[in-house]
Structure formats: structure tokens, C-alpha cells
Amino acid sequence: MRSWRLSLLALLGLGLASCAETTKIDAAGDIHAFLIAIRDGDKQGFNAHVDRPALKEQIRARLMASAAKRGDRDGEIAALGVVLARPLLDSVSDALIQPDVFRAVAEYFGYSADTPIPNSFVIASGLRRIDDATVCAAKKKDSPCILVFRNEQGTWRLVGFEGDTKMLKGPKI
């Protein structure tokens, strides 16, 4: 009787682990397409895998928090500056959500223009499952997440950038 219970628990654990892996493998296919769009400078392919409103809001909030933190010593004046800077931060956020800008992030992960992008199973092994509809990519297994993707109606889209904002660099003019 006891071995039956242990077997059932082991099977249940295996099923849960399998579910987590299935989520990561499912996400990896779209993340692969996202990386190819970045490599090729394909705006349409890039936009298909980005939740622009969510990412824009997240980047804008990070930029506003950073600006408020830098001006914290001036209190009310800093708060007013952040409010007045909102339209500028909206423009900056829009400008940052481009394949050329995210190329530096892809290169940080080791995906340069001359490096083949690995298949979905390799990408899946580098993902961390947050919940049933969210995964993140980190450079190493125990390092912080950099990119956050969410399953939105069957397509995994970039919804968050948790890396250093200095990584988001536009093309050199």
C-alpha cells in the first residue's frame, strides 16, 4: 500500500514537472522567432512577439522611477519634473521598443548576427517558468531575469525588460 502511494506521488510530481517543461518549450518557439526578428531587423516579426503597450508601460515606469530616485533629494521639485517628463518618457519608451535596440540584449545572451540561433529545446532550457502564462529568460540559471514573456492568446510576447536599461542601445548614427 505504501509503495502504491509513493508511486502515485512520484507520478504526480513527474506530471507537474512535465507541465512546467511544456510551458517552456511552447514559449521557446515564439522566443526563437523573436530572436530571429531581432537578428534580421524584422520589425513586423519583432512586433508580433512584443506586447508593446505592456512593455512601454514597464519601461516608462522604470525610467520614471530612475529619474525620481536621482532627483529624490529635491522632493517636490523632483516629483514635478517626473510628471512633466512623462511625454518625453513616452517617446523614449516607444523609441526603445525596436529590433535594433534589443540587438544588444540578444548579444548579451550570446546571439550575435554571426551566431546561429539555437533551436527551441536549447532556448527552453534557459527559460524560467514564473507561472502557467509567464516565463523569463536569464543569462544563467541562478541569475536575475532579463526578458519576461507572457502567453497572450497562444503567442508568447515580450512584456517586460528587467535588465539594465543601459543595455537598450539604438543603432549608431
Automatic annotation (TrEMBL):
Read off the InterPro entries from this record. Answer: DUF2939
Q: What is the annotated signal peptide range for this record?
A: 1-20
Q: Please give the PROSITE patterns that the UniProt record associates with this protein.
A: PROKAR_LIPOPROTEIN (PS51257)
Q: What's the domain of life for this entry?
A: Bacteria
Matches recorded under Pfam families: DUF2939
The UniProt keywords, alphabetically, are: Signal
Q: What is this protein called?
A: DUF2939 domain-containing protein
Which species does the entry assign this protein to? Phenylobacterium montanum
Source organism lineage?
Bacteria, Pseudomonadati, Pseudomonadota, Alphaproteobacteria, Caulobacterales
